[in-house]
C-alpha cells in the first residue's frame, strides 16, 4: 500500500471510530491522579483511552497509534505541550489529529500560542469531567463534519440562519443580511467551525491574508459591526477573553 493510500485509510478509520463512538483518545498528562481521572471518565463514556506522562511518550504514541484526538497538558517535563503540539501539527502524518489543550488558569499567552500552532480547543484547570467530555465530543463532532465535505462552498445551516458561500449570501429567516466581503469571510470562518476558538491573528491571516495593516483592534471593530448586522444571532459570536472569538457550539 502506498503512503498516500495508507494515510487515506487511517483517516477513514478515524472517521469510523468517531461515528461508532469508539474514538481512540491519547492523554498526555504528567500528573498521575489527573491522568487516571481523565482515562476513567473518558472510558466510562465509551472512548478508548491511552495515557502517557511525558511529551516524548506522547509524540511516539501519536506517531505509532494515530489516535482520533489528543488531550494535551501544556506543562510537561522535558518536551512541553507547546512543542508537542508544534511537532504533531508539522508532521503530515499527524497534522490532522485534533488537539484539546489542558492549561493552568491564567496562561493566556500559552493558550494563544497553542491555538496559533493548530490546537483545536483548550480547557483550563481546574475543570469538571463533564466539561472535558463536552469539549472532546464537540471537537470530534466538528472534525467529522469537516471531513464529510471537501468544499468550502458547502452551505452552512444554522437553524433560522443559513450561510451560502457560493452566492456570498447570508439569510436569517426570509431576510437577506447585507454584509461586506470582509464581514462575510469573518462569519464564514467562525461558523464553519462552531466551538473552535480563533485568535485574532488567525482571523487576520484567514480573512485579510495576514495584512500587516490590520490590527487586533480592527478585528474587534469588525466583530462588533457583524454582531449588530446579525441582530439576535449576533450573540452567537462569542468573545473568548484574552484569546479571540468563536461561534457558539450546541454542546
Q: What is the string of SSEs from the N terminus onward?
A: HEHEHEHEHEHEEEEHEHHEE
What percent of the residues sit in helical stretches (DSSP H or I)?
40-55%
Shape: globular
Which whole number gives the mean pLDDT?
86
Q: How many E-type strands?
A: 12
Structural class: alpha/beta
CATH superfamily of the largest domain: Response regulator
CATH-derived topology of the largest domain: Rossmann fold
- The fraction of residues in strands falls at 15-25%
Distance between the termini: 39 Å
Nearest-angstrom radius of gyration?
19 Å
Number of individual domains: 2
Which spans have pLDDT < 50 for at least 5 consecutive residues?
none
Count of individual helical segments: 9
CATH class label of the largest domain: Alpha Beta
Return the CATH architecture of the largest domain: 3-Layer(aba) Sandwich
Main β-sheet, in a few words? 5 strands, parallel
Question: For the largest beta sheet, what order do the strands appear in spatially?
Answer: 2-1-3-4-5
